[in-house]
Structure formats: C-alpha cells, structure tokens
Amino acid sequence: MGGVIFDLTCTADNGEKFIIEVQRSSQYNFKRRMLYYGSKLIADQAPKGSRKKWAYRISEVYVIALMDGFPMPDGERTTKYLHDVCLCDRETGKVFYEHLGFFYIELINFTKEEQELKTDLDGWLFVLKNMSKLDKIPLYLRKPVFEKLFNIAEYSKLNKEEKIMYDTSLKRKWDNEAVMEYARQESKVEGIAEGAELKSYEVVHNLLAANKFSISEIANFAGVSEDFVKKVRASLKEK
Hints:
By secondary structure, this protein is α/β, with parallel strands linked by helices. The protein folds into two domains: 4-111, no CATH class; 160-238, no CATH class. The protein contains eight helices and five strands; from the N terminus they run ββααβββαααααα.
C-alpha cells in the first residue's frame, strides 16, 4: 500500500479538469505517476465513436500534487515551495502547449506565518499545512470560501465513519514520520561503522521485523529497491 491519503478529480465550470493529490511520503517514479494521471485524464475524454467529429477538443488538464513532509523528488534542495511545470521548447523555453500543467507544492518549504499571508494561495497553503493545529479561522482567512472549508473540516461535525478515516490517516502519517526518522538514525549509525550496504540491510531488517509495512513502503522508507527488500526478507527466512 502506498502513501497516498486521498486524491480528487475535479471539473471547473469552464470544463477544465483538475487532479489534486496529497502525498505523505516520497515514492519511486513520483513524477511519472503524476504524468500518467494527467495523460489518463486526457485519454478518458475521447469518445468511443465519432473521433473525427470530436476533433480532439481536449479540455485543459492540470495535476496538483501537494507534497506533505518531503521535497521534490530528484530536485535541488531550495526554499521554493511552488513548482509550475508545463510543456515547453527545451531550447527557447517558450511554452509549447498551454493546456496541460503540473503544480508541485512542497509544503515543508512553506513557512509563512499568519501575519505574512498576502494572497489566497498563501491562505490555502497555510490552512493545508496547519489545519490540525488551528482552533479558529485566522483573521486573514475570514472569507466565505475558507469559512466553508473550516466548517467542513471541523472534527466534531464528522460522523463516526469519517472520524475513523481521519484518525487512521493521521496515525498513518505519524507512523510514517516515526519510521522515516528511525530509518535515518539507523542509517547514520550503521553507515559510520559498516558502510552503505550494511546500513541499508539493517534498516530493512528492522522494518521487516516490525511486520506492519509492505515491500514498497519499506523500499521507500529505506531508500532501496524492492528487489533488495525481497533479498533481505529471503535471507531472514533462511536463518
């Protein structure tokens, strides 16, 4: 099971298509997965017949990836929190196709406090990052759209099933953060003494021993391939 908590597919009044995904932890092929989601949303617009009459009138498609707790995969570490990605000419930088876009948001890099909020984007990112800690609507966010968001998100108004889903997602987030921190500490200690491969082996060994994570999750936490995890698991069975 992956680290995705939820994703939404939305259609705007003008027909624009949006995929909104919240990702709790980094995964292999993250960028490719976002590309696949966007491409599928385009392909699904094609009718079963009358392709000629349809003439490829594709609605605008945008993929919005909210990365909660990890940086842009394979990117340089910066303080930038919004990455606006599009198809462009590699040489000139000129936009080649305006109606397909990818927005990657690194919430760990969004550090603005309430008094620093200046735009609606600032407000949304502030709420998304701090919702669990807010007990009232900040002054800047006292607008109908944010008031509606707070009313929907208010925990006391959730039914029993919704509360269970919320508690489960929150626990998963805490578990992931704890495991990743443990893996980092183990990697640091073992790496000094025995080298990178032994370090990875010990981290994977401990995660397998916990008996609560899938092969893909362990590979993600430890920063190794799934084949490496399977080899460690096989060696443990032999012992």
